[in-house]
Model the fold of this input.
Amino acid sequence: MKIIILFLCFIFASDLYSQNYHFNQHEVSTDLLRMNPSSIFRYKNELLFIGTKEGLIAFDGKKHDVMLREDGGNQEPSSYFHDGEYLWIGYSDGGIFRLVDFKLKPWEIVEGWPKSKITGIGKDNIGQMWFSTYGEGLYVFAKEVLYNFNTDDGLEGNDIYNLVVDNAGKIFAGTDHGLIVCRFENEKKIIEKPTFLSAMPNEIITSLHLDQLDNKLYIGTFENGLWMYDFETKKVLQILKTNNQIKKIGIAGFGILALADHKNNPLMYYDYLNYKSKTFHPKGTESPLSILDILCDAEGNIWILCNNNGLISSPGIFSVRETNIINIQALLEVDGNVYIGNDEGLFCNHQGADALPILKKENILSLYYHKSKNEIWAGTFGDGIKIIDQKGKLIKALNEKTGLSNNNVFCITQREGFIWVSTLAGLNKLSPDGTVLKQLNKKSGLPTDYNYTLFTDKSNNLWVGTDGKGITVIDKNDRIKQITNDQTIISFAEDKNGNIWFSTLNNGLGKIEKDSIRWFGLSEGLTELHISGITSDKTGNIISFHHTGLDIIDPDTHTIICIGNNAGIRKWEQNNNPFFNDYIHPILISEGSSIITYQPAHQPFLKAHLIIKAIVAGKTNLIPHTNNIISHQDNDFLIEYAGIWFSDPDVVHYRYKMAGIDNEWRYTKDQKLIYPNLAPGTYIFTIECAANKTFSGADTFEIKFRIKPAFWKTWWFLMILGIIFISIVYVWNESRNKRRKQLEEIKMDQVRSQLETLKSQINPHFLFNSFNTLVSIIESKPDQAVTFVEKLSDFYRNMLQFRDKDLIPLNDELEINQNYSFLLDQRFGNTVQIRTNIVNNDWLIIPLTLQILTENAVKHNAASKVHPLIISITCENDTLKVSNNIQTRRTTEKSTHFGLQSLAKRYLNITGKEIIVLVTQQQFCITIPLIKNKS
Done:
């Protein structure tokens, strides 16, 4: 990422001395200037979000992505909130969205969104979501219902500027009528005025900020400055006075940064350690800056969003204070005054003026503040100790004449009320008034008389760093113990776990763990082996000073990160132990003629945070911690990611490995990886992100997935394919043989059926009955005799015509049966009635089916005028039903059942369906399957 360096000097109007913050302009600024930005937001160590009129921008320090809402609404965010899982975004048109998998998803509720601008979002300690609006009051979403607080419920106005939720879960909202506190309990709306408002003017509340760690509420007003309410002491205090509207509040280091509505001096700062307010005057490439929004994040960075410079940021944990003193050897801060010692004397920065000499012509090596006596002890090279007051008045001089073992004083410290001094002739134990009580040297048990540094731990052990003889420890009973014997020790520090660390001249750092030493060098992550000094910060982390910045070491994980490269200093020029740390104020570090102020972040993060933006295989999204099984077609693996470390994005490194492909780690600074055309198999992809090259304390992401082989390449498929092939050949052969047999049987059955039909129709009984009927007609109705003969002739002709066919149209079959019905009617009269009800005759049927079934009904049933035999022929869907009433004959005629059996077998072979015979006490019914006539 291309970074344009800006030096924006923040000059404090009422500060002790000038102080510079180094700002970087980010490349995203080029796009921001045309997108009309308006707001910035960041949660913990996540991405930075920038609201613009053209959408929401997610910025990772190098790249940025624009995310749009897809409903066509207003694209400019107006408020943000992160609940620990999702980022909530409120919009000017009342829209409410959540960021899910890097996509804006609308928050869908039955009641719908508010119609007014969302000015604030929060969540109370029972999980209820709160929304403030400018025009509709407050909303609370409780138990899946959205409730509204407005003037009908006791609000003095519906215009809410913002809201915060305190540590107790109360909702504080800023209005035109002051500050209000809201609760929603048991579906009851409660609106109250805080009791501390009586100490504040009745003022419009334009901005709010909650410091959760210190449990303080910061309140910005329209024209009465910035106020602070302490929840512990229940007191409210005005900390910044201005007639301009406070638009935004942030916690920066050991103070509060506020953005005021002022054209020339928009930034104000309150130092709550020294209880002083300061005005920032930014100076840069374009001055004054046209500031839109500010943000102080958890890393300690200060972000400024501008109309004319886009997005700029500073590692706010560092500021550079210029002095007129060179070769600084010792530092001390007392009551806001900074005392600086070098080889020319002792100087004091007081009330922003140049450093003035208070001890001249003295080579100052060490400084100590005796708090109980309000004295400054200055250790010199060659002139003992000078005890002075804060104005530089000499109170007392300690030297060899007063009992010191030597006039070259390297270090002064305190233990259990006594003062200890290291010199070139051993150690001296002094009373608070400077009386030498005891001397320790090589003769009394010390390994050497040359001792550079002293350090008192929390257990009141005195640690002594020697010149080439390692470490000496003196316990509370003044017993001496030596730990190492071959190192030159520069300084000591104690971490949050009570472990002692030490720095050496050229061998890195050591950590004393019980009776052993754990060494830290370049391979463990140190930036340099030559350490100027070490100390610990307010969180108990170890700080190592060197020529390229500071190494911060987490004593639990031993994660090491280097900071300071982004502070605008290319090379730090330092003497040994170039710092002052009282664990209350910011740490002071000398650098050439400058003093660097280091203020650890409010919520320090000591490692880069890895964010996975997208991870897919082909078109399939892969989900971590699940069993990802994907198709052989989705074998292109792609992952997009970002290592978030805004303190210095350029030091972020990545390494990755695909188990099964990569035998070793592969290193990159890219933010996108592709593994194309992966073979089927199981893969484990691991990627690590760190702000150092050793990847100590790296943030790690791992995902496992399996690519299935193409099914036609699997052993089981090939085996099944072989079985199927063999089975097909076998079934085909068996089917062919079976079909042959079926065709032969069909032909034989057809011949038998034809023969049986012919036999039945030309047997003597049928002919005898037909001729008797003909004789009767000739005698009684001679004019119908010719018709009878024609019908009989047609019947036999049709029977001979269709006997060789497998199927005939249903229409032809009905014609055959009509002729047969005529013959029966002439023979039996109305005693046999055939009723045909067929609308759709577009079907095929086996020939002579109806004749066989009609004959079967006549053969086995009695018929009379009183009880006629009724044969019904109907068509239902794709079946033909032939039914008759059962009227059993007194004498049954013997039957072979061949006709019905042969008919059933032929239908089964031709249609694959069976005929259905249903017999009840009153009715005999046969259902015949029909075949669609496609021609």
About this structure: DSSP finds seven helices and 74 strands in the chain.
